[in-house]
Amino acid sequence: MRLFVSVDLPEQFAEPIAAIQENLASAPGITLTDPTQAHVTLYFLGDVDPDEVDGIVTALERAVDSVDLDPFEARFGGLGVFPSLEYIRVVWLGVEQGETALVVLQEAVEDSLEPLGFEPDDHEFTPHVTLGRMNHAGGKAHVQSMVQERSPTVGTMTVDSISLTESVLLSEGAKHKTLESISLE
């Protein structure tokens, strides 16, 4: 099973995300994500034995309990890229409000999974929603222009849970299935 931990965006965000992606679609070399599966990845676990799922869920419950975080508002907007505007691999939608709480959640998730053998990320966590991935630099100028000139706002949601999600890789792209949802309440 290929798993990750996420904060899933509501269905009503799919349309405004798709509108942003429509403007990115003309960039040669970009592969867009499915806007109906928009999420903030808190931790990518990778391939996991199904027998480990219960232990992971318990660790995630401990993580949520440890931060004692009430449901909070998160506003999504603005565009960015990883790793840099000169070498674009990922184009993303940013977090304009709620970023600190998402960072706290991510750190707690990472800390709770480490005793199970999952390595901490080797880079600083930047909360974001992946909009697309660049396969080559053909569309770099178009993406640079969008990131520098546009600051779309998608909407605000209440973050009240995190999800353990399975990603099934298919020829038409990844399909996500929530295995468990852990409430912040």
Automatic annotation (TrEMBL):
The keyword Hydrolase applies. Gene3D superfamilies: Cyclic phosphodiesterase (3.90.1140.10). GO terms for molecular function: 2',3'-cyclic-nucleotide 3'-phosphodiesterase activity; RNA 2',3'-cyclic 3'-phosphodiesterase activity. Its EC number is 3.1.4.58. SUPFAM superfamilies: LigT-like (SSF55144). It is an enzyme of class 3 (hydrolase). It catalyses: a 3'-end 2',3'-cyclophospho-ribonucleotide-RNA + H2O = a 3'-end 2'-phospho-ribonucleotide-RNA + H(+). InterPro entries: Cyclic_Pdiesterase, RNA_CPDase. It comes from the Archaea. Keywords: Hydrolase. A motif (HXTX 1) lies at residues 39-42. A motif (HXTX 2) lies at residues 128-131. The active site is at H39 (proton donor), H128 (proton acceptor). Hydrolyzes RNA 2',3'-cyclic phosphodiester to an RNA 2'-phosphomonoester. Belongs to the 2H phosphoesterase superfamily. ThpR family. This is RNA 2',3'-cyclic phosphodiesterase. It comes from Natronosalvus hydrolyticus.
